[in-house]
Amino acid sequence: MLMDKTLIAALAKAAGLDKALADHPEDVYAAAAQALNTAGAIRYPTDPTAEPWPPMRAGTGL
Questions:
Q1: Contact (Cβ atoms closer than 8 angstroms) between residue 36 and residue 3
Q2: What's the CA gap between 33 and 56, in Å, rounded?
Q3: Could you give the CA distance from residue 11 to residue 13 in angstroms, rounded to a whole number?
Q4: Nearest alpha-carbon partner for 31 in 54, 15, 51, 42
Q5: 25-39 and 5-14 helices cross at what angle (nearest 10)?
Q6: pLDDT tens-digit profile of 27-61?
Q7: What is the DSSP string of 30-62?
Q8: Is 60 left (phi over 0), alpha (psi -120 to 50) or beta?
Q9: Which residues contact 1 (CB under 8 A, 6 or more apart)?
Q10: In a 10 Å sphere around its CB, with 0-12 CB exposed, 13-18 middle and 19+ buried, how is residue 25 labelled?
Q11: At 2, which helix (H) or strand (E)?
Q12: DSSP tag of 6
């Protein structure tokens, strides 16, 4: 799925990436394309109480 460059530019400006868009527009477009392609691969937990990673405990695994 491709995003319109006008939409990407508007989203980049809304995110405060005006300078990045002005200096490196192709990098901003590439990052937007990568984010769009990766968004579908993220799995949401089916259990709302499940943590996406183990709880952090001080002193273990050091």
A1: yes
A2: 33
A3: 5
A4: 15
A5: 90
A6: 999 999 898 888 778 777 778 777 777 777 777 65
A7: HHHHHHHHHHTTPPPPSSTT--SSPPP-TTS--
A8: beta
A9: 36, 37
A10: middle
A11: none
A12: H
What type of residue is 13? K
Q: Token pair 């527009």 is at which residue?
A: 25
Residue 16 has what DSSP assignment? Answer: T
Residue 36 near residue 1, CB atoms below 8 Å? yes
Picking from 34, 39, 32, the residue whose alpha carbon sits closest to that of residue 8 is: 32
The label of the residue with tokens 């491709």 reads: 2
Statement: residue 26 has pLDDT above 70? yes
pTM of the model: 0.61
Residue 24's SS3 state is coil
